[in-house]
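Appendix C: a fully annotated inverse folding record. The material below is reproduced so that readers can follow the format used throughout the book. The structure is listed first as tokens, followed by the designed sequence.
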């Protein structure tokens, strides 16, 4: 029976469980809409597959209604089975994600690591050491490979601001 459900719904048992969890997290209005679509789909499925029992028919119809209701469009699921309108949703999601990444920028890991030792950098600079020497110190004592130019740039940003 599991194989039959997998073929009809296009989802594995594990994916169906995730789908039901997703449906449960939706607002009640959306759940009602999915149930309504499931009833419509069960009549269509009954005419396509008269060999199915009523319980399996309704179960499969509900799963298919939930997929069309948006489950395939979340988190990149279902590109292979998406309709054109769902594919448009994917496009909007991709563009929004890319725009968010561009506006947020990225906190470089090296910058964060250097700032963790910024007290030492400031102390060495106050003792009259140059950025090449400080870079060598960070390399040998803290295992941070950093250029003197980057340290100078960071110094201007942090100490000037």
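Designed amino acids, in order:
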């Amino acid at each position: 029976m599991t194989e039959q459900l997998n073929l009809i719904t296009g989802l594995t048992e594990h994916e169906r469980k995730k789908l039901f969890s997703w449906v449960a997290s939706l607002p009640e209005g959306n759940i009602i809409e999915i149930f309504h679509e499931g009833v419509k789909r069960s009549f269509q499925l009954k005419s396509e597959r008269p060999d199915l029992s009523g319980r399996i028919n309704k179960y499969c119809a509900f799963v298919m209604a939930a997929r069309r209701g948006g489950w395939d469009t979340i988190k990149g699921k279902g590109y292979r089975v998406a309709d054109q309108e769902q594919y448009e949703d994917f496009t909007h999601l991709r563009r929004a994600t890319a725009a968010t990444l561009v506006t947020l920028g990225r906190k470089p890991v090296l910058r964060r690591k250097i700032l963790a030792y910024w007290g030492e950098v400031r102390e060495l600079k106050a003792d009259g050491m140059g950025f090449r020497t400080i870079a060598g110190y960070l390399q040998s004592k803290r295992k941070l490979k950093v250029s003197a130019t980057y340290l100078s740039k960071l110094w201007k940003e942090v100490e000037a601001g």
